[in-house]
Amino acid sequence: MAQTVSLSATTRQANGKGGARQTRFRGKVPAVIYGHGRDTQSLELEAKALEKALHGIEPASTIIELSVDGKTAKTLIREIQRHPIRPDIIHVDFFEIHASEKVKLKVPVHLIGNPDGVRNAGGVLDQVTREVEIEVLPANIPDRVELDVTALKIGDSLHVRDLTIPNARILTDTDLTIATVVPPRAEEVATPTPEAATEVAEPELIRKVREGEEEEGEAAAEGGGGGGRQSPRPKAGRQRRPRRPTRRRSPRAAKRADACAPWSASAIRGQNTRRRVTTRATGWPKRSSRTGAFPPFAAASARV
């Protein structure tokens, strides 16, 4: 017989994504109830109470007595949506049922016993199908379906037709395999290839002898181990630090730096490096509005 769990819910006024987010923000879970000719109704449940009620049961085959605004209805859970990262429940679908109407649902298949092929021959038990769909009255909903696999040997299998569910009709294909015992897999030993078997001789490192080493070798040969003083080893030359690449300046920055330097040609000539103000028509310098005279460079050009 199926288990029965009681839950209480309230009507949810705000619908859509926005209303569902507000419901989750308040610590509740949005849900809907439908079926048996009733309109879809939006609900909300306490998240902690729902998690506690679903702990240790099979949600698909458990009857939920849902109390909505004082009215109780027997329902089945059709879908549970969870957060993709956290284990939180974000939405639940309830399907209302009646005692006189048959319902279609999926029940889990549990294997019991230790197969003979696993116990004596070292085989491996492989469960291919883990649930089957049945049609049954709400009062006869089984919690789960058990299948004995004790007599299975290596190569034997059990199918859906081997299941026995009282007061229920199996809708799943009868030829579908539920469990089978396969032989153990032999460990593959990697054989060495001919290329890897032949050892490749490493090439001898030939190094060019430096001049200092040649002189040191000659001095050691002349001394002959008689206690003569050997020539000092020449010191290695000082390595120069690599020069840092110069930063390329823009033409405007180069012109500005040239004008500000005390040795620039503009400073030597004594000319003003700022923009000269000229008339638009003739291109001649404008007369000063304060003194009434031309700039110095204009007077010099006039004298010439």
Key structural traits:
Ribosomal Protein L25, Chain P, flat, alpha+beta, RNA Polymerase Alpha Subunit, Chain A, domain 2, four-stranded mixed β-sheet, 8 helices, disordered C terminus, 304 residues, six-stranded mixed barrel
Walk me through what this model shows.
The protein has 304 residues and is an alpha+beta fold. Among the domains are: 95 residues, Beta Barrel (Ribosomal Protein L25, Chain P), CATH 2.40.240; 79 residues, Ribosomal protein L25, C-terminal domain (RNA Polymerase Alpha Subunit, Chain A, domain 2, Beta Complex), CATH 2.170.120. Helices cover 21% and strands 29% of the residues. The protein is built from 8 helices and 13 strands. The strands form 3 sheets. It has a 6-stranded mixed barrel. Strands 10-7-9-12 form a 4-stranded mixed beta sheet, with no helix packed on it. A 3-stranded antiparallel beta sheet has the order 8-13-11, with no helix packed on it. The longest helix has 13 residues. The protein is flat, with a radius of gyration of 47 Å. The protein starts with a strand and ends with a helix.
